[in-house]
Amino acid sequence: MNNALEGILVIELGTVLTAPLAGMMLADLGARVIKVEHPNGGDPFRRHAGKLYSPHFASYNRNKESIQLDLQSESGKADLLTLLARADVLLENYRPGVMARLGLTEAALAQVNPRLVWCSITGFGAEGPYRDRPCYDAVALGLSGLASQMLDPARPAMTGPTISDNVTGMYASYGILGALMRRHRTGNGARVEVNMLEASIAFSPEGFAQYSLLGAVATPQSRVAISQSHAFPCADGALVAVHLSSVEKFWQAFVAVIERPDLLEDARFLGPELRTRHYAALNEEVARTFRTRTREQWCARLAASDVPFAPVNTIPEVMQDPQVRQAGTFYQAAHPERGTMVAVHRPVTIDGERGPTARPAPLLGEHDAALRAEFKLG
């Protein structure tokens, strides 16, 4: 079961993040993923930290093989078609029209392999006024409304990890798995299409439901106010996050921990609806109290009272966290060129197991000779 997709061959024409993430998720489940890269530098993500093996590339391309093909050449296209004739999945994130210009139309691919599941990831879809625009994470975040729920209009600054890129890759792998299941029943291939705009909208549906049902426009404070999510700086400058939700016992326990019984009598905070309405005022009141003790002290008190909380860990702190260490989330991966690096296991277990340790992301063209011999490429 830990190689649930064993026997499935995926040909990935993926660059940067969305398609490589989808391919990696399939590889983590046991699929064989062959990454086709251009001979002139390969996937652009390789070069983000110099040379051709950046941390960015390594993070999204484990468990894959790499072959160099120039799809602008007739020999490169012929080799790709040879691979696709034996493949189960084609995964690509080119702009609309690129595959057709290469002669790789749906009809042409169906003729080569009628059982092929072709997943195409684009920025905005195959049709529409934005069809030909370039799309990256910040663009999809802005257009989908996600950014409006995260940015302070007075001091707008994009922060944090990629969201639109990642969720699009996840939805793509989800669509591929569904198409493979249908093919198992019918024997027919499929065309799966995913775009970053719609994936980003689907990732956060609450704001649209609130607007259509209540006429309320979501802001950066909307969700956190309803869930009563806070982050407070402590005496040592470190942060603690708490989530008080609508369960009254958490609020009661929290007030006892911070020794602020006056908050229970404050007319602004009598019940979840009022605490939501006066979220900013409550945050300000409690923040003053949190500055009186260190993060370690607050964490000990909160843990003893069953309040939902967490230290706001830095990346090094996450790697040393006892729960993370117990779970075995990280492992050491040895690469023949880049040496030992820390890698992240897939976050899914099957029958209590994660499966075999992943292979590190490949060097550019690392498997050229072996794949050419196996598939009898030109």
Plain-language structure description:
It comes from Massilia solisilvae. Keywords: Transferase. With 378 residues, the protein is of the alpha/beta class. It has helices spanning 18-28, 55-60, 74-85, 98-101, 106-112, 137-144, 164-186, 196-203, 206-214, 222-227, 248-257, 262-265, 272-277, 279-290, 295-304, 315-320, 322-327, 368-375, and strands spanning 9-13, 32-37, 64-68, 89-92, 117-122, 190-195, 229-233, 239-243, 309-311, 330-335, 339-344. The strands form three sheets. A six-stranded parallel beta sheet has the order 3-2-1-4-5-6, with helices on both faces. A three-stranded antiparallel beta sheet has the order 7-8-9. Helix 2 (55-60) links the parallel strand 2 and strand 3 (64-68). Helix 7 packs across helix 8 (196-203).
